Protein 1
Amino acid sequence: MHADRDRCVRAVRSRDARFDGWFFTAVTSTGIYCRPSCPALTPRPENMVFLPSAAACQQAGFRACKRCRPDASPGSPEWNHRADLVARAMRLVADGVVDREGVPGLAARLGYSARQVERQLNAELGAGPLALARAQRAQTARLLVETTTLPMADIAFASGFSSIRTFNETVQEVYALAPSALRARAGGTAEPGAGTVRLRLPLRGPFTPDNLFGHLAATAVPGVEEWRLPEYVDCRLRLRELRDLPAAISRCRRLLDLDADPEAVDTVLAADPDLAPLVRKAPGRRVPRTTDEAEFAVRAVLGQQVSTAAARTHAGRLAASYGTPVEDPDGGLTHLFPGPAALAALDPEQLAMPRSRRRTLTGLVDALAGGTLALGADSDWDLARARLAELPGIGPWTVEVIAMRALGDPDAFPVTDLGVRQAAEALGLPATPAALTRRAAAWRPWRAYATQYLWATSTHPINVMPGS
């Protein structure tokens, strides 16, 4: 969008928050870059330069605005609905792969040379993987400086910097303030507890949270997940290693679909006269996703042809028997969900489920553990679908549910789902899978969001915010 100058100027003049994260406004007269909704005096159009990323602004020598904090704006929704090289690379950068594995590791995961990845990212984002990772480190550093009382040396390494000197120089360059001045300006907020970081996750409005949190709460695995009702998206992360913070934030944003563009989604869906009343009633529905793709795939298989409550019970038993125990001083979490390697070693005869589903589960975990099935942020959506469909006992419903919630494909459509078919019939839409698929072509590329609106027509617990 940053290339459409007239549209960008209009967004800045109207301080339109819907475009925060879509592009950034660099002001040549001040050397500062802002988000479109910045409350400061609007600069003259001839002094505006529009860039596609905070990293591009920083690489061009611009400093982040101290009023609108553009580096903390919602992420671009481009990386949610695309599955090409650049989108996959951006999801991996956000997950901290460059910090952990370097540019060669990023390129290897994507299946391209480091030079190709560098060229593609520079062409579209105005910055390469190192600059993008540096911008993310700077944002993480700012978060820790302003919201904790950790020593600056600890913050430097927790943010991914290789030295305290690099940390100090980067913060000074990006924010025009030394780390100590950033902390003083923020008021010296206290750290919630050892290894704990508390933050508020930005999002784009409109935002209807009932089906999002209702779904996550209704399907929460006992001992692995729990629900506490906040007044806003309050994120508290208890980390064994603070250097995991950037990846943790990225995965929480992905879980809650916070970088979605609800205006784009709802504009398409509201054009359908049958869906329009549902969109008007509760705009801004999100797709509940996951922080662990392999875990969700296992849980999707456990949920085949059983109720939500039964699926939770199966998953809870699996976690209690094979998961890693954890201590949770704040609540009732007892275990981490077992990974593919742990599940591949279990005796399937011990699983209290039909033999056919045991065979499906073992086939899935073997593929995940053996590396023949990849469901991570770098996954090719079409290839992952094809590999899933090859596994015994995994049909179209399971493939599409995993594509929707684990892979993050916004156009995934579980057309054979009972709730989808019942909602379609109640709305006067075709009820057979083939006819409904043809009818749903008008909802592309947002059929996963259409699914949320269809599901929301029922009284199922997934549609009810707990405590409401």
Note: The two ends are 39 Å apart (CA to CA).
Protein 2
Amino acid sequence: MRPVRACLGAAAAVALAAAGTTALVTTSASGATSALSDRWYAAAPYLMPLDNDPPNAADIMDATGLKAFQLAFVLAPNGGGCSPAWGGTSPVSSDTAVQSVINTIRAKGGDVSVSIGGYGGTKLGQACADPAATAAAYQQVVTKYGLHAIDFDLEEPEYENSAAIRNEIGAAKILQQNNPGLYVSVTTAGTADGTGWFGKQMLLEAKSQGFTPNNFSIMPFDGGFNGAASQTTALTNFNSVLQSTFGWDQATAYAHEGFSGMNGRSDTGEYFSQADFQTVLDYATSHHMDRFTFWSLNRDRQCTPADNGGRTSGTCSSVAQGSWDFAKYSVKFAGVTPPSTTPTPTPTPTPTPGGSCKAAWSSTAVYTKDNEVSYGKHNWKAKWWTQNEVPGASEWGPWQDEGAC
């Protein structure tokens, strides 16, 4: 990720999906369990838990319905070595601060993914001797936090180092094999034709190692982009790159493709509004893409004259917005309707007739993958976690029509 995302000066050095629907269980600090689907991990926005004025995750969850967070970034220690550290300065082994954030999220029924890499600092793929050693370092993170998802953010300058990328891709493959069900995303730079030469070399490395993550996501910003139309064009072109690299058909490529945007003003002065996010979201859902995320929740709030003077900020978006406006698009992608300041009437479910109809759908009940209900004299099966999403209201919604009952 670019400078304002990975390091805003010295202080920020401390920092840091056809969607799968496999249910993963997380354990909260209180011992309670909650099930999240892959769709939630695919929708998790980035959050720097130690820098850039971290917002309160619980407040965001209450305001938007968001359940998953992409915590960033784990790097190699600034002093050298092959062990994981937040921002290169805070060893994962002795961490309590990020663990506290994770406990808060899980206590409210949510979960986290951890992102490694980013734009600044030394990456473990650069510091560790080989894929096995790199994987062992990342396994410490997976084990420490009981992770069900991890993100490999592979970009400049690391992805220009072929040995480092070989280590990172090899480590991702090892983690995937040793942690069944682990959701693995790989995020890289976006360009007008999808991704650049180094990004394409990374894809070829994955192909040579026989590694297929849940998705390969591109970041279509900081590259001469101008709103949503240029981003969806890049996503279309990246789909062609995935097809040609892996021999996939178009649908399979979209099922392994993701979008990672930047809300508001980018590092290079591009602007992406709420309307742009909606356009890209519509593209992602209509093409059955696997991931929709953005950088970052730290920036998902209105700037004040004191903290922004027409520049890119790590703590606000530099566009007119309400707090957590952009997070609501992640919630929509996960398949849940976010709270609105203007409540809308809840449709009254059709009474359940006798015979083979399932229990009537309820607007207040929480449903997870494969739960069945009846609505409008049809039976419906949940494709992922959902609440207050009317069966049949959207072609790309969370409910699968099982026919009349």
Note: The chain has a mean pLDDT of 87.
Protein 3
Amino acid sequence: MRLRTRRRSSARSSGPFRSPWTHVAQAAAALAAGMGVGRFVYTPILPLMQTQAGLSSAAGANLATANYIGYLVGALMGIAMPALVRSPAVLRGSLIVLTGSLVAMPATHSTTVWIVLRLLAGLTSALIFVVAVSSVLSHLRDHPAHLPGWAFGGVGAGIALSGLLVLVLRSVADWRAAWWASAGLAAVFAAVSWNLRPEGTPASDAGSTTGPARPSPRPHSWFTALFAAYTLEGIGYIVAGTFLVAAIEQSSPGWAGSGAWVLVGLAAVPSSALWAWLGRRWSRPDLLCAALVIQAVGIALPALIGGVTAALISALLFGATFLGVSTIALAAGTHLQFPRSVALLTAGYSVGQILGPLVVTPLLHHGYHQALILAALVVLAAAGAAAVLRIGFPHHMAVVRSTVPGRRSAPAETTPVRTDRP
């Protein structure tokens, strides 16, 4: 009864009541535009640009790196200027600029211009991600954990639909049409998310308190292991996220790569909600370690076995884990109450994504299989760091219930964090 009252109070204070699923749909559409299309459509289009536009493997890696540098800059902007996170104008402007960058890709054959456009796409996709995720965590904080999980599934939906679009167009059109069609898909998602309500009030990673803090275990050692695991994950996962389609097409029919990428997106749609549900039964360190091991197997399969069956299994395992790893890691950082944990983990993850393509570039002269094997080993190293996290992990920590300025809340009380919720 108290929970129901709190939800109604939150709805009244943040505007006219709407179904939480409306908010989920709008946030999912924003993430589909910014991440699923704007950021990841490059993966299935890359082989087309290599065969039809003369893009070399090294230049392809440079375009990927430019996008990840832009993403890091955008994420840091969201951290340094919190007002951006709460601005509808920033969300809408980023959606427009992102779509424009996709439209402009086929207008040139200049690698330098492509690098600038992908840098711009990375920056705006990061701002969209920050605004959308902050909105979900703010407005749906009193709702079941699977609702934000379905919002994160928008990334998978964008990957699946844009991958399907490229799969259809590759047999009837060229790489230019793929970019233009992707821009049209991004515009549709942007229209759906246009009225998404950003986060209404500032909030810190640890939340503000209305009472004295209680003693809690020192989180530094566990956070160090978590930070190492998440940064290594950024390196390993992005290699697969960038080159998986091209690697599969080296040893399988042309449709297999794009088809596998569609499967990655489909598997990613329910993955965050599924890992949130599993978090009610197992601890976060155990889940993080398991997800990373599963992901490493998925990344290595196309290189070790090859063939269509291995490619599809790889896509399924990769799609089912890469969003789940982020969900678990960020939740674990918040649970440890380490200052600015989300910002620090996101920064480490972004740096890892920049390093990934650079690390494997020397290996691309021999194809993509060696790069995938190295990526799988890095993800296994991340799983090793996650295993260290399991040692003495504080599954119960005393926290002070947070309050938001401008909202009426119950008196502050100290309660243990439940381990059955992510």
Note: Residues 251 and 306 are 6 Å apart (CA to CA).
